[in-house]
Amino acid sequence: MNEQEIFYAMAMTRLTNFNFQQALELYKAVGSAQQIYEHRYDIGDILDDCSPRLIEALKDWDEPMKRTDFELQYMQEHGIRALTLNSDDYPQRLRECPDAPIVLFYKGNADLNQAKIINIVGTRQCTQYGQDLIRRFLSDLRQYCPEVLIVSGLAYGVDICAHRNALECGYPTIGVLAHGLDQIYPYRHRETATQMLSHGGLLTEFMTQTNADKPNFVRRNRIVAGVSDACIIIESAAKGGGLITAEIAQSYNRAVFAFPGAVGMTYSEGCNNLIRDNIAGLISSAKDFVNAMGWKEEMLRQQNYADGIERNLFPDLSPEEMKIVDLLKQTNDLQLNIISVKCSLPISQLTALLFQMEMKGVIKPLAGGMYHLLM
Question: What is the pLDDT of residue 19?
């Protein structure tokens, strides 16, 4: 990635932190942060509905540039990478979200674009029932799908339990932070966070010297939801951060699942409500989850291929269908809207094509509006 582009993207996020959604629109419209800097005095001509406050903010880059210089030095000294929206290693799933961060700061060794990524979230008051669910779920999931990236928020309760059990099961795990990478909050999770750096990593959109203020946790939750294929709620009260993550995941057309709990139990109420309102699918085991995602069938197909069993040849496909196949060969398990954009096909036409391809046995629809290539 061009170092100058990283510099300008970081400075831009410093300028536009009050309106990151419109900043993203501007970034996509212009194509790079460096171009935004070069057009800082005529931004209104590029984006018609750009807010006056944002136009004014983008005129003065002096302080953000000085701050960025300091940040880049800290990053170099501590092995932190900046992933801009145009970087190849930026999380592709998150890139397609309407409020994706322009820059992410990452320290770790996990592939943020690996084939299977799930997040596990829930209450900070995780009960023994919830702890047992996490332990059993991840242990069993490991038998079905040995390569899954586990994402959570490094908070008390469900989050830290998910991270620790992921490490015990041999899964890489990513903690998404609501602050900069110069600190760990809560501090008592520092030892686990250190282990994660060599078997997963830490990810944030915030520069150093950013505290874990309340609004940052909601912003953090959208990253947790956006980088993942599915969101799994373990336990939650009627209100809580896990429910916010689930709602965001649903808005991104991600699969959402919840473990049910006993009626009247405080930290099962949120999960039961999600299931009742058809926001989350009910699961009681890793097997339920794997079947719902279509991952067990994929695992068996891969095993058959490894054993030398020939795959079926593609049936006759139209040029438009082959375009979809070629895309899914590069990055399998994509959502309908992503396929539409990548293949330049309107949703109405694409829906009909996908149905025909499903009838031909070429693709399989998955939970969350995802499509998986079978051949």
Answer: 77
Q: Which structure tokens are listed for 234? A: 């373990």
d(CA 289, CA 118) in angstroms, rounded, equals 11
Q: Is residue 153 within 8 Å of 221, Cβ to Cβ? A: yes
Helix residue spans in the chain (DSSP H): 3-15, 20-30, 33-38, 43-46, 52-57, 62-78, 92-95, 128-144, 158-169, 190-197, 214-226, 241-251, 269-276, 286-293, 295-306, 319-330, 336-343, 347-359
* 306/127 Cα distance (integer angstroms): 42
22-26, 72-76, 126-130: which range is least confident on average? Answer: 22-26
C-beta of residue 64 within 8 angstroms of C-beta of residue 71: no
Is residue 177 within 8 Å of 206, Cβ to Cβ?
A: yes
Percentage of the chain modeled with pLDDT above 70: 94
Provide the whole-model pTM: 0.79
Q: For 114-141, give the DSSP string.
A: -S-EEEEE--SS--HHHHHHHHHHHHHH
Q: At 224, list the tokens.
A: 């947790």
